[in-house]
Amino acid sequence: MGRIEKLMIKEAEIIVIDYANCNQNEMVLLMKKAKELILTQNQPVLLLCVFNEGNHITPNFIRQLEIDYKEIEESISKNAVIGLSTIQKWILKGVNLWTKRKIEYFDTREEAIRFLISQ
Asked: Which residue from 77, 107, 71, 103 is spatially nearest to 14, judged by alpha carbons?
């Protein structure tokens, strides 16, 4: 399984970005690759981002996220995140304040997928 993959569930295609155990530079590179993929899609995408305790969401990563997200936010129909620590959930709440769309977080992959494929 690659760090970026397409997952088909009940005729819904989900783009999964696996940031687990990546450092800041790897996370920024993955974000840029995912942005390129999202921009090539012909319809809004469902996006699942995977983090874990090994990730450090740094100010530089958040700045890059702000820049890149502005370019793709209209191309994302739903966005879910899993694997966040308590502090990372607080950071996400801050991110949700400056984005037009709410990024939902879940404790498990299954919960996130249920949300993404729900109408």
From this structure: 77
